[in-house]
Amino acid sequence: MNLKIKLAVFDFDSTLMDGETIDILAGELGLKAEVSRITEEAMNGKLSFFESLSRRVSLLKGLPVERVDQICQNLPYMNGSLEIIKYLKAENIKVICFSGGFRNATSYAKNKLGFDTDFSNVLHSRDGVLTGLVGGDMMFDWSKGDMLSRLQHLLGISREETLVVGDGANDLSMFKYADMKVAFCAKEILKKEATIVINNKDLREIKNYIY
Predict the structure, then answer these.
(1) Cβ-based neighbour number of residue 208 at 10 Å
(2) How far separated are the first and last CA of the chain, in Å rounded?
(3) How many CB atoms lie within 10 A of CB 103?
(4) Mean pLDDT confidence for 181-203
(5) In this predicted structure, what is the pLDDT of residue 1?
(6) What are the CB-based long-range contacts (under 8 Å, 24+) for 41-46?
(7) Most buried among 58, 66, 129, 174, by the most CB within 10 A?
(8) Which contacts (CB < 8 Å, 24+ apart) does range 106-112 have?
(9) Which pLDDT score, from 0 to 100, does residue 18 have?
(10) What is the mean pLDDT of the chain?
(11) Is 146 an annotated catalytic residue?
(12) Is 13's pLDDT higher than 80?
């Protein structure tokens, strides 16, 4: 185990979770193809994350919150997600999830997978139904990097002691604040900035690089 690592930050969608939460939610309204197209543009860096998130969430207007929670509590977690988190925490490494997705999914996953805390976004609702509006911790392209930098200062942890794992363009900002940068089944835009590239859908492969 590389004892220098004290903090590990994971993206959620297509990293800790096998898929995109918003695409699955959109499927309930018959809009999965349209939302998936916007998601793909954003993850490849062709559209600002704020713009893409706002556009996609607006399409979810009218979806009952109860159904959102049901879906978010039955998402397929990535192969090896539980094991890698358990492995890291056994070494006294803080494990945190940063997600441009939603607290309905990440807060539930925190209890299932065992990471320490989550920073994500909140779907606005009125009378138990989504309004199509969203706000929260991870609204912009730069949000993950900004939050990571602040956490490092708060915890007294350096970039040399930080591991980050993600798959898309909105993970680029946190790559700037870590020496160990894992592109996991990632878009080319992220692979170019990574120090470690994993193309197999198994998070346990991270163990091969921490020793």
Answers:
(1) 9
(2) 3
(3) 18
(4) 96
(5) 46
(6) 42/168, 42/169, 42/170, 43/14, 43/167, 43/168, 43/169, 43/170, 43/187, 44/168, 44/169, 44/187, 44/188, 44/189, 45/169, 45/172, 45/187, 45/189
(7) 174
(8) 106/12, 108/69, 108/72, 108/73, 109/12, 109/16, 109/17, 109/75, 109/77, 112/77, 112/82
(9) 97
(10) 95
(11) no
(12) yes
Decide: pTM greater than 0.90: yes
CATH (one of 2.40.30.110, 3.40.50.1000, 3.40.50.1460, 3.40.50.10860) for 7-209: 3.40.50.1000
Which residue out of 11, 23, 141, 167 is catalytically annotated? Answer: 11
Identify whether 13 is a catalytic site residue: yes
For residues 41 and 129, the model is more confident at 129
Confidence band of 177 (pLDDT split at 50, 70, 90): very high
* Beta pairing partners, 157: none
pLDDT value for 3: 56
Per-residue pLDDT band at 168 (split at 50, 70, 90):
very high
Residue 32 identity (one-letter amino acid): K
Cα 102 to Cα 118: distance, rounded to the nearest angstrom: 10
